[in-house]
Amino acid sequence: MQERIKVIIASEKAEQRKMLKDAFLAEGNIDICAIAETGQELIDGYRRYRPQAVVANFGLPGLDGLAAIRAIRKMTGGE
C-alpha cells in the first residue's frame, strides 16, 4: 500500500483550486488536507495539518504566496 501524501492547495482563483484538487485526487495516494484562498489561510492550514507538500500561487491576496512559504519555512526551521 502506498503512503498517503497530505497536500495544501493555495490559490486566489477558484478554477485553479478545483483543477489542482481534481488532478491530485486522481492520483489516488494524495489527500487534500486544506484549500486556501489567502496567504494567511495557507499558513493556518499548514500549522493545523503539517502536510508533506504545499502548492501555492504567488499572487495570493493579503500575504502573498511567496511570503507565506517563507513564513512556513521559518516555522519548520528551513532557511
Overall description:
This protein is α/β, with parallel strands linked by helices and 79 residues long. Helices cover 46% and strands 22% of the residues. It has three helices and three strands, in the order βαβαβα. The protein has helices at residues 14-27, 39-49, 65-75, and strands at residues 5-10, 30-36, 53-56. It has a three-stranded parallel sheet, with helices on both faces. Helix 2 packs parallel to helix 3 (65-75). The N and C termini lie far apart (34 Å). The mean pLDDT is 93.
Write the layout of secondary structure elements.
Elements lengths: L4 E6 L3 H14 L2 E7 L2 H11 L3 E4 L8 H11 L4
Parallel strand pairs: 1-2, 1-3
Radius of gyration: 12 Å
Alpha-beta classification:
alpha/beta
Indicate the proportion of strand residues.
15-25%
**What is the number of E strands?**
3
Describe the main β-sheet briefly.
3 strands, parallel
Number of helices: 3
- Which assembly state applies to the chains in this document? single chain
Which strands sit side by side, in order, in the main sheet?
2-1-3
Shape: flat
Strand and helix order: EHEHEH
What value does the average pLDDT take?
Answer: 93
Helix content: 40-55%
Unreliable runs, pLDDT <50, ≥5 residues? none
Distance between the termini: 34 Å
Compact overview of the structure:
The chain has helices at about 15-25, 40-50, 65-75; strands at about 5-10, 30-35, 55. The protein is α/β, with parallel strands linked by helices. Helix 2 (about 40-50) runs parallel beside helix 3.
